[in-house]
Design brief:
- This protein is 37% helix and 23% strand.
- The chain folds into two domains: 194 residues, Hen1, N-terminal domain (c-terminal autoproteolytic domain of nucleoporin nup98, 2-Layer Sandwich), CATH 3.30.1610; 207 residues, Vaccinia Virus protein VP39 (Rossmann fold, 3-Layer(aba) Sandwich).
- It is built from 16 helices and 14 strands.
- A hairpin with a 4-residue loop joins strand 3 and strand 4.
- It has 468 residues and is of the alpha/beta class.
- Bound molecules: S-adenosyl-L-homocysteine.
- The site of S-adenosyl-L-homocysteine (SAH) has 16 residues, from loops.
- S-adenosyl-L-homocysteine binds next to loops.
Length: 468
């Protein structure tokens, strides 16, 4: 399978900087399913083309038991994967052109946001849904689409056409956007069960769909097709949980929250935080509550104890965390009335979602610091504009307090997954900006022992919708 990317932006060889691949060299990469080769069939100042050639190893796939999607023994070895530019192309894009996909360019950062005249050509793109779907997917994003349907076998014309198309997409825009569109839409067109199954697929879809997928006319179809396999995976995993304790979950238990909890244990900060947040929600008089980034469901459990709360929904991007929550909350043994009060849903805070509407209060406990700062703006809109509950309680570490953790090396975050930790002034400034923009008022409280110099280890802001 072959993907070529061409630009006539001058100097066209700048494409090499954006792709982090030198036009003068042929480069090879070893991937889980075969090899990838990057080379430039043409590289002049006026026109430059980069080619990504994938050499899928079907036998290796079977050996590594990644080919289990094939239903027959023969099908495991003889299938379209070596030739079709299907879901493997996305994996290769992420691995070989990862920085360009993310929109980073160390050598020429200013190039990232330049709208370049770009032509992407994908050979043998499986289009289940035909050229019509292909157009419906790419044209709303501003592409000119040319597609030639390929015969099943040119030497046997009576066999007719295949589902494979030779596709050319033309658009002037950022390279990172083009790569994101391909990353998401190629597997959507392929519509095969993914050969690999990983739970962070949902997160990947949302990350690469940011900025365009929410407004795409076929958003729902794209999401359903992309996540088809994963949805089933989530359901199956939840069903299995009742029957067996999966030992791999213990590992998540350990690797997820443990270091931070270990640090905070002596002062039982976690318990204090949950109690304080639950009290805040209770005193706001909320009856329908959503815990955003609920993790393993500790706050959900705490909230269920309060009989004045009618409904509690926990939402998280991680199916693994939700699996643990299902087990901890003992869904299988819950009386039916109690069970009717609670739900756990998979979703992302970066993605507008109608399921988040209709709640009186939302909690974001130790969640915002897990997001890259540029993505916070999406979260703000999803929570304060889309969901828009009367009360929003947000907690986050107070970075100033970190000097008081003796076991924490200076300058380090409390958890390896934290993308930032804010001082009190930084958090207050953020809260103020969000409150002003979305029509809320924010009040602040500390949680944990109050140190005269550095304040409390956790900081909390309670947002109340103005006029509520
Ligand atoms: N609120 C829980 C968990 C905090 S850890 C508690 O206090 O125990 C942060 C949680 O945020 C993780 O479970 C992680 O999966 C979730 N998370 C991270 N990014 C997210 C996103 N974009 N959307 C939804 N949840 C997210």
């Amino acid at each position: 399978m072959l993907l070529t990317l061409t630009t006539t932006f001058e100097p066209a060889t700048d494409l090499g900087y954006l792709l982090h691949k030198n036009p003068a060299r042929v480069q090879d990469f070893s991937l889980a399913f075969g090899r990838a080769h990057v080379f430039y069939p043409e590289a002049t100042a006026t026109r430059c083309t980069a080619a990504l050639l994938l050499d899928v190893d079907p036998v290796g796939l079977v050996r590594r038991r990644r080919g289990s999607a094939a239903r027959t023994l023969l099908g495991q070895y003889v299938n379209d994967r070596p030739y079709a530019s299907g879901s493997f192309l996305s994996t290769a894009l992420a691995q070989v052109f990862g920085s360009a996909l993310r929109g980073t360019c160390t050598a020429r950062p200013e190039l990232v946001d330049v709208a370049l005249p770009l032509v992407a050509r994908v050979s043998a793109l499986p289009c289940r849904g035909g050229a019509t779907l292909l157009r419906e997917l790419f044209e709303p994003l501003g592409y000119t689409v040319e597609a030639t349907r390929l015969p099943l076998d040119p030497t046997v014309p009576e066999w007719g056409d295949s589902t494979y198309h030779d596709v050319t997409l033309t658009r002037t825009g950022r390279l990172t956007d083009l790569l994101s569109h391909l990353y998401v839409l190629v597997p959507v067109l392929d519509d095969q069960k993914h050969y690999w199954v990983s739970e962070d697929e949902i997160e990947k879809l949302l990350r690469h769909g940011e900025g365009w997928l929410p407004d795409h006319p076929l958003r729902d179809a794209v999401t359903t097709r992309y996540l088809r396999y994963q949805r089933r995976l989530v359901k199956t995993a939840l069903a299995q949980l009742v029957e067996e304790d999966d030992p791999s979950l213990a590992d998540v238990d350990g690797s997820g929250a443990a270091p931070e909890q270990e640090l905070e244990k002596p002062i039982r900060l976690n318990d204090q935080r949950l109690r304080t947040v639950a009290d805040e929600i209770q005193s706001a008089g909320a009856q329908r509550v959503i815990d955003l980034g609920c993790g393993e469901g500790k706050l959900v459990r705490e909230l269920l104890k309060d009989k004045t709360i009618e409904r509690v929904v926990g939402m998280d991007v991680s199916p693994r965390a939700l699996n643990i929550a299902v087990r901890r909350l003992q869904f299988d043994r819950m009386p039916s009335r109690q069970r009717a009060r609670v739900d756990l849903i998979v979703g992302s805070l970066l993605y507008r979602d109608d399921r988040l509407k209709g709640f009186d209060a939302a909690a974001l406990v130790e969640v915002i610091e897990h997001l890259d700062p540029p993505r916070l703006a999406a979260l703000e809109r999803v929570v304060f504009e889309g969901a828009a509950p009367t009360t929003v309680v947000v907690t986050t570490p107070n970075a100033e307090y970190n000097v008081r953790w003796e076991s924490l090396p200076a300058g380090r975050f409390r958890h390896k997954d934290h993308r930032f930790e804010w001082t009190r002034a930084e958090f207050a400034a953020w809260a103020e900006r969000v409150a002003t923009r979305f029509g809320y008022t924010a009040t602040h409280k500390g949680i944990g022992p109050d140190d005269v110099e550095v304040g409390t280890p956790t900081q909390m802001a309670v947002f109340t919708r103005s006029g509520a």
